[in-house]
Design brief:
It comes from Streptosporangium longisporum. InterPro entries: Polyketide_cyclase/dehydratase, START-like_dom_sf. The protein is an alpha+beta fold. It contains five helices and seven strands; from the N terminus they run H-H-H-E-H-E-E-E-E-E-E-H. 31% of the residues lie in helices and 40% in strands. The two termini are 23 Å apart.
Length: 213
């Protein structure tokens, strides 16, 4: 995410909605079990409500899809391992401040990671602490992973990140991003979501190619 768009910043109801929704999550001073409990609530909400509700305008929600890609001068397996470890996004993702991993296990050959990303998101020029609850499903042998995320106020993303071996030690990373949010927030969500992912892509490319990661 980047800055709050001017069109939405001028809309007081939208700004208030975001502020009221995000302010109740000051996770920094809290214990990890409390963050984990909120992750479980978010996951249950997603599984038993969001998955069954089509994001159509009649429901007050909308969906948008975007693809972004980047080429990195490094072998594909190394790029996958670095890129898929969200801990490596700290200091690169523009708003990411902390990562809390709740569970990390392997089921049927797929690695599953339940985590919460704590971010400071600028809303109308004011940094607001937000929690993004996520589950990663890593298919290392097939060179892709998927991530579902849920953030107040009921903003969902579906991500499929594919790694392509270009030969000669080069890799193409393509992110297929699906955003679901209120019709009032979808433009903000897409603009800021795509921007933050592009900045993270560029930062990881630089860190990998320099040998830092």
């Amino acid at each position: 995410m980047t800055t709050f768009p001017r069109r939405l910043a001028a809309s007081l109801p939208v700004a208030l909605l975001l502020l009221l929704a995000l302010l109740p999550a000051p996770a920094r001073a809290e214990s990890d079990p409390l963050v984990a409990a909120r992750w479980q609530v978010a996951w249950d909400t997603y599984r038993f409500y969001e998955c069954l509700t089509a994001p159509l305008p009649v429901t007050g929600r909308s969906r948008a899809e975007r693809d972004i890609s980047i080429e990195i001068d490094a072998p594909v397996q190394h790029v996958f391992d670095v890129y898929s470890d969200i801990e490596n996004h700290l200091g690169i993702h523009p708003f990411l401040r902390r990562v809390v991993t709740h569970r990390d296990r392997t089921e049927n050959g797929v690695r599953l990671v339940d985590l919460t990303a704590v971010e400071d998101v600028p809303v109308a020029g004011v940094p607001v602490t937000s929690e993004t609850h996520a589950q990663q499903r890593l298919h290392r042998d097939a060179l892709f992973y998927e991530t579902d995320t849920w953030t107040l106020p009921n903003v969902v993303t579906h991500q499929r990140i594919v790694f392509e071996d270009l030969g000669q030690g080069r890799t193409r990373v393509t992110e297929h991003l699906v955003f679901e949010a209120s019709v009032l927030l979808i433009d903000f969500t897409v603009t800021n979501g795509v921007s933050s992912h592009q900045r993270t892509q560029a930062g990881l490319k630089e860190a990998i190619e320099s040998g830092e990661l």
